[in-house]
Design brief:
With 238 residues, the protein is of the alpha/beta class. The protein has 2 domains: 136 residues, FAD/NAD(P)-binding domain, CATH 3.50.50; 55 residues, no CATH class. The chain is built from 7 helices and 9 strands. The strands form 2 sheets. The protein has a 7-stranded mixed β-sheet. It has a two-stranded parallel sheet with strand order 8-9. β2, α4 and β3 form a beta-alpha-beta unit. The two termini are 34 Å apart. Bound molecules: flavin-adenine dinucleotide.
Length: 238
């Protein structure tokens, strides 16, 4: 994972999760994949097989690109089947987020991209990891169930639906969020869009279908891609 992505991920850890004890994760994926199994992980493996209890050997929090590519690495190392659980806020399996401001926003005549067409890891020419792929590989997916609390000492986490999971090793891959305008200056008005996930992109597409004029705030590559999409929809764009 590039260091810039890692930095963003770490920033979100401190902002979005209430941690009872300090976490210090450098590059957790590579660290624990090369580590020799501890006695804790062996005992987790023994009691884990059918998810019949709260014990999970490896847990990834977050269901973005990092989680999807990490899952592929777990499979390559033969440590996924019956041992890995991904807990995500989103309702879909990891996908190539960059597509959201590219082919996803194409006007109808240009055949826009839709899931399951761009699940991770197609962006790197890898296998398309659909929800079925995770099932086949024995990876447990908990969708639409954000982690709300982690207790590092007890090695447990709780989700918004009230699930309590005990983990052997934990990867936090919660990514980042868009910076939003405050509500008092109109940041929550209808017609104001942010783009980070599929739900945001769907909402933007439904506005593009009706819009006459589009104003893009932010001139980075995401802003420029949205401006290009709006032009493709033949909309007056600033
Ligand atoms: C529209 C857009 C276009 C982009 N285009 C490009 C590009 O062209 N090239 C490029 O290199 N990069 C691009 N990026 C950036 C790239 O997508 C990110 O670097 C990448 O998504 C980071 O992956 P990640 O898995 O670390 O985080 P994310 O993709 O942000 O995934 C984090 C996941 O964690 C989930 N989550 C958050 N909190 C919790 C919680 N408490 N419990 C459970 N789940 C949680 C989120 O819902 C999300 O599913 C783009 C980003 C966006 C938004």
């Amino acid at each position: 994972m590039p260091s810039s992505v890692r930095r963003l991920t770490m920033a979100v850890i401190t902002n979005s999760l209430s941690l009872k004890h300090t976490l210090s994760l450098g590059c957790p994926q590579t660290k624990f994949l090369t580590r020799r199994p501890s006695s804790t992980s062996i005992s987790f493996r023994r009691c884990y097989a059918s998810y019949a209890n709260e014990n999970r050997e490896y847990v990834i929090v977050g269901g973005g690109n990092a989680a999807g590519y990490a899952a592929r690495t777990f499979v390559e190392h033969g440590v996924a089947d019956g041992r890995l659980c991904i807990v995500t806020k989103e309702g879909v399996a990891p996908y190539e987020r960059p597509a959201l401001t590219k082919a996803y926003l194409f006007p109808p005549e240009k055949k826009p991209a839709r899931l399951p067409g761009f699940h991770t890891c197609v962006g790197s020419g890898g296998e398309r990891q659909t929800p079925e792929w995770y099932k086949e590989k024995g990876i447990e997916m908990l969708y639409e169930d954000p982690v709300e609390n982690i207790d590092i000492e007890k090695q447990t986490l709780t989700t918004s639906s009230g699930k309590l999971l005990k983990y052997g090793s934990l990867i936090i891959a919660t990514g980042c969020t868009s910076s939003r305008f405050p509500d008092k200056i109109g940041g929550n008005l209808s017609g104001v869009h942010y783009i980070r996930d599929v739900a945001d992109a769907d909402s933007l597409v439904s506005s593009l279908e009706k819009a006459k004029k589009v104003v893009v705030v932010g001139g980075g590559y995401i802003g420029m891609e949205i401006a290009a999409a709006a032009v493709a929809w033949k909309l007056d764009t600033t």
